[in-house]
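Subject: for your reference before the review

Hello V.,

The reviewers asked for a structural picture of the protein, and I figured it would be easier to keep everything in one thread rather than splitting it across files. Below is the amino acid sequence we used in the manuscript, unchanged from the supplementary table.
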Amino acid sequence: MKHFLLIIPAIIFNLATRGQFKVFEQKILQNDSLNTALNREKLFVHYEKPLYKINDTMWFKGYVLTAAENAPDDSVGLAYVEIINEENAGVKRISVPCYWGYFFSNIALRNSEFKQGTYKLRAYTNWMRNFSDSLFFESSFKIIDPAAEQWRARIREMNLSTNRFKLSASLTSQNGAALANRPVSLRLHEKRNLLNVSLETDSSGNLYLDTLVNVPAKNKGFILEISDKQNLQLKLPVAVIDNESIDLQFLPEGGNFIAGKQQVLGFKAINVYGKGVNVAGVIKDSSGKQVASFASVFKGMSTVTFTPEINEHYNALLDNGTSFKIPGAKASGTIFQIINNPTDDSVQLKIDVSTDLYGHNYYSQLMHAVQIVQGAVLKT
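And here is what came back from the structure prediction:
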């Protein structure tokens, strides 16, 4: 009796489980029959080039496939191919017979129907219209009119470094008229887009851009495209600047660089953006002999000390090979120096002149003024 009571719940549970599985099995069969009877399609189109001229002929070949298996679908009778302009208006629409899932044809890009610009090719079957357009084939191409008005660009500045792109240019038509207040698109690319922005020229046709970019470590040069909705006009090669351009200036202490006197030269190095950059190098004379070495200590600034010779020319050579000319030393003049020894509790003021000025009256007056200043400092 006890065993019989245990068997009854087991039988009831088994029947309930089989009933639930039966419902699940029916849902699977319904979905399978739906996919079999209403199989979705995918479509792909190949055409020979991304750029065409007015009155060219576009040749293309297409494939109609089952969405589930990517197998050729031989149940399709026609494929529809459309060309749509930038205003999203249809310019051309043709129907192409399909054989065993393949189709091919051509479209004449006549000047009576097409103008210069960017177009979209869209293709689909009539069956695909029963679903959303997510599987419609779409691809962009451009048509160029060789007889269209051409632009001219005067590039004042175009720099591309590892993290920045700068452009300063002016756009004019063929007859020299400024392209004022013209919306344009700028695309900087190599194998992929590095920059894609929309700008507008000013009232004089000038175009300015200064923006951060991320240039790949390995590159073979980039192309800058400047275009608008009516014209694909300019393609400019852009080279990457591996080393930032540096401006290095040497400034003699006291304002004069006098030959035969040991002097301190302050220097400052800045990049193209006006920011201080650290540098290091040596100073050599005209024979290539090294007379001093230098290195910046704070934002490209520091000092270097050496004694210039008369009628000698000096150059500063950075570690990266860049050379800068140091202003030539004068034969006559006055030197004013401040010597600040960190171990002393005072500073020294040094005034010196070239030998040709020793007998001049103003030199005696200058020495007398220094004595007065020294006495005033001692009293305080």
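For the response letter, the relevant points are probably these. The first helix runs from residue 2 to 37. The mean pLDDT is 80.

Happy to draft the paragraph if you're swamped.

O.
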